[in-house]
Amino acid sequence: MATRLSTGKARNASSAAHKGRGRKAPSVDTNPLSYDRTDPFTALNVLRTLLASLPSRIGGCQFRLSAEEHRLSMHLLTIVEPFVGLEPSRRTLERQPTEILDAIVFHLDSKRDLLALALSCRRLHTIIFPRHYDYRDVRCKVSSLSVWNHLIVHRALARNVRRLEILDERSTEALSVPSDILVSETDLESTDDELAMHTKQERYLVSALSRMSALHSFVWSCNHSPISIDNIWPILLRCQTLKQVGINDNLIFTPVALAGPDSGRKRQLIMPALKMISLQSTKHAYGASKNPDMSRISSMLTNCPILESLDIGYTPRRNPGFFNPVMDDFLLCGRWPHLRSLSLSNLWCSPHAGFDATATFLFAHSQLETLHLDISFGAGAPGGAAPRRPFMLPPNSLPRLRELRASKEIANAVLECPCDAPGGRPLETIKGVRLSGSTWDQVFFANLRIFGASLKRLELAGWNEMDDIKRLVECVPQLAWLDIGKRAGSGVTNAVLQAHTSKPAPLITTNFVEWAALLANMSNLATFHGARFFYEVASTSTAAVPLSISDRSRVRKNDEVASMLAWKCPKLRRLDHWEEGSGKVIVLLRDGDKHLDRRYMSEFPLSIAPQDDGSGVVPAPTEAPEPAPITDNEVGEYREQDRFLPIANVSRIMKSAVPGTAKISREAKECVQECVSEFISFITSEAAEKCQLEKRKTIGGEDILYAMVTLGFENYAETLKIHLAKLRQVGISIPVSSFVPPSSIDVLANSTKLLETTSVPETEGTSQLRSHKTCGHRTVTSTRPGAHTLAAILSSFDARLVKLEKSILPLYTSTQQLTRRARNIESALMKIDEIASYQEGIAAEEALILRGRFYSPQPGQLEEYMEVLQRMNATIAFGNLDGSVRDTARIIETGAKKLIQLYTKQVAEASSGSPINGPDFEPMPFPSATLDALRPLVEFLRTLPLPPTHPSHPAAPAIQAALKEAQKGYGDMRGSWLRKCLEIYGKRVAERAGTIDGVSAGREFGTFLENILNVAEEEYGLLAVLVPLPSAANIASTYNTLITPLVSLFSSTLSSLSTQVKRSLHKYTLLALSLFSCLTSHQTQWDEVMCRPGNRNENELKEGLQGIRATCQRSFPEFLADIKIAASSNRGELSTGVMDVTQTTVEYLERLPEIREAVIAVLQTLGDGNWKMGEGAQVGKSGRSTETDNQRILEHFVYDVISMILGTLQTMSRSNRRPAFGSIFLLNNVSYLLSHLLLRPKSPEIPALLSKPAQDMLQSNFRTAKAAYFDSNFSPLLQTLADDKDKSKSATKEKFTRFFDLFDEVTERHQLARVLHEDDEGRNTVSEEAVKLVVPSLQRFIQRNLGKDFSKNPKKYIKMSADEVESLIKMFYLETNSAVLPPAEQATNNLLIQAGWSR
């Protein structure tokens, strides 16, 4: 405190006050410009802070605001107020603060969109004009300092510039600057130093450009100024929104200065949005270099990583000493992975590195679709080096190329380059190829014939001979667009002709018949350029001034040409106009073209291939000079009846073909007369042309037959050929006509037409031109003197006619003006009546909707109902928001909701009923009748007013809400119906999984999953047709709603199968693997059908796949553990047959090939060897190896399975208390494994699972088991017969007794236990080996002891002979060896079986 208090009490109070203010109040910035008007939350928080600080103030300042704080609080209230306190109905767009509206308008780039938004209401109009609309596109010069200064001062306005074009100082183009900027300002532009002025202009331009933070397009055409683009480019690099750049300056082709030592340390800026760039030189010499360089362009393009379109063009200089830029380094180093369009013009490559650099560059840019390549490869080394090698591309170059403009050599390289893309290279357009008649043309034609099947458009730069065009047509007859360019030598001929005449030389192609026959080979040809067939006329439409006689002659000739071309080429539409370089084309219209004006000329833009002279004009090829048009003095005359056959003859022939009582009208006779005469003239004209070509003067019968065949009347020609032969046999001579030279024929034909047209004054509506429609009508015989006489008569008549026309013309012009005014008045009155009746009709329709039959629309009345709503919508679109308009909007809302209810009802009917319950799933498509009924309804619902399209429409929000609800209902109903159709098959899959084998059950689930995906994909296709809100977001939301029941059905079915597998994994191991295989194969389709269309992040199939994968990983160790546990679970006496564990193992291995990929995938995930975790193996990184071969890891697992089952069988055999029976058990089981897995498998794929060690292990164990079997069953027999020291009779008797007792035990043992029951071949082998082992020893023992008389009765001890023993041993291995047992032995066997032994 400033004042110090002396009393202690005051001092205490002061200290207390300081303690109370120990926490300083937050400071508030009182500058109103510091707060953004678009951020109401910050304004509200600052206002609360300012008010909360009032109670803590001391003295008289408490609860008071200073002047600055008061001003700030009022400003904050104006920011917060628009966002609070308004009813929802008043919170419209136009009531938002100006700053928010300005921020919204800022995001509209197109001036058309800005204009549409500005016309919606006055508030937006005041914001858009001129703040945004006038600033979107700015076109001015560097010297426009007032523009740059205005943008520097008003930074917010500079942000609104989207396109900036800087013109040349000498340009005469109109400037485009905002209306509130003065074009010139004396204070800024006045200076005495011109160099300082240029520096000032550059400084202002750079400063203004740096403030254009939202610039999208920049064009630089400032050629005559010291300001360099090098000073502008760094500023453009900072503009992150720039998408398109065009630079037209010679300085970009000048060499760049060497970079300093510290230049590489600077961080390189990139332009993340720039996709199109055009770099061109100009025709002016200012700034041009004699040795242009590409280094500056390369350094500029390194800042454009996502470039999609690149256009570099250099204008060649005609002065000596100038060269074109070298492209070698640019092609070697330049790479843009997203490049789609490339144009390189007038550039040069070295002869050594140019080929490889160009080929490598094109191979690296596989995304190119448009390629314009005008590169010249330098000549060979001086001194006559070897010829240049042909240009070649690496295989699979340019796989997406669609348009190519290049030389013939490069076009051949592209066509010959192999492409492995599906469907081949989609090349459709080739431009710039010149046919010169050389051997390279033959190569080009051969490539077109082989690789040009996809070509649709071909634009040549020139051609030499007509044969070149014929060969071209034979190679690519499928062309739809053909431009042959200019013919070689046509420019010289044209110049010579112009030197001798005052008018331009005629370049009309006279042999149009030959051209028409050639073009007829291309059935799809729609456009043909390069040859002009039509003569120039003053006007092609009837006007106040009539056509002259020469123009009429040209019109008739043009009609003749058009008729011929239209007849020969049924699809031909566009041809060259007689005005060269005017941009006009001739359009042929046929009778079906009712929507076009009935004229054959139109101003369509003509696409012309670039020429060598740079003019861009393709002169037409020059043929033989066309004769001059028919003049007035050459006009002849003949009567109209001379053109037709006598009508009496026609009538007589017609009467002979009808009954005698029938009558024929005069009109019918005249019609047939004209048709027959036209037909005869048509045939005769073709025959006359043939005679003219053969230089003959008489038309014969063969000429008539030739004409009929040529014109397509083959059927008539065959009959007439027979008739002609018969007439010649009789000896009748048939003179057809005398041939008249074509010039006189044309004169007579044209004179007749002119006489017909000059019988009345030539005014609009009275002209009666009766011209021939074909090339015929040359059947009149006349002579040249008569034609000249008639021409002289007509010339005088034409002079008088012209005088008459000049006197009538003013009167006719005045009459036409009065007629137009009368028509305008009549049209205005009709429009007034129409508007009045329209308003009356609207009132009647409103009453009709509220009270009449349309209140509940029916499907048959939809069209009329929708027309009523559409007309009522039109009244709201142009009305004010008064009470009547709101009432109309409520009526429209009611009608729209009724239509939406009808839409929901029809969808519900199509999604109800009883699904098909057959053995296989049969999809139930959307009913075609309902679909046809819904299409027009949905199309109309899409035209209803919505807030985005009709922001001022009162009913738009309610209609949008109703449409969203209906669309959501569509998804619910269709999804429930599809689940109902598929649910029974899901239950069937889950129920059958426990009754069929696991692999088949997994396949059934795969079929079920595929049905779900197919149904979902089909429904997604219907969404684009049947939903009323077709935006991408709405379709995605509806699709998510639709597939939710399907996803739930899939999850529940998979969950039940997973539960079943987990409950008994040893039983359903194959089912788990089959499910894993099914889910893996459908994972990609699930992503494309279920996730991407609806933008879903959830992936139920992936989650289920993870659970099944974990189960499958657990199944392999548990399977091995189950095999190992089988040895301990069967202690004691065992059956000698094949064990269940053996059969289960064989069945498991037999089914592995069917699910091989799934097994390998799970084993790879588990790791090689990690399935032996039950034996103490540890799971670690050492077990996993991504490089392990798939076949190898599968063989390792199968080896471990076989090793485990063999070990288990050996353990079980050893645990048997009777080794002899244990050996039979082991032999039977090992033989079963060997037979089913290796020797006689069910499938040839099963042995492929066994590695060489596994096969050796099986065979070795089988041999060991067989040896154990012989050792335990037959070795004791051989031991009794072995020689020993005791050779007494009693010892011999004991040996025989012991042998046959043991043999009886072996016999009883084999009667109880079958050996190799299912292996016939194995039994025979064991039988033979047993006989060879026992019988020879017994024979030798008997023979040795029979001579010693060891007993008086040897048969008492020798119970069976060796042959009987052999027979009995063989009976051990017969399939029915137990059917002949004695009753006592059978009883013994029964007791043994009851004791635990079983067969």
From TrEMBL:
GO MF term (any one): RNA polymerase II cis-regulatory region sequence-specific DNA binding
Domain F-box: 90-138
GO biological process, one term: exocytosis
Domain of life (superkingdom): Eukaryota
Record GO cellular component, one term: exocyst
Entries under CDD domains matching the protein: F-box_SF, HFD_NFYB
Protein family according to the UniProt entry: Belongs to the NFYB/HAP3 subunit family.
Name this polypeptide is given: F-box domain-containing protein
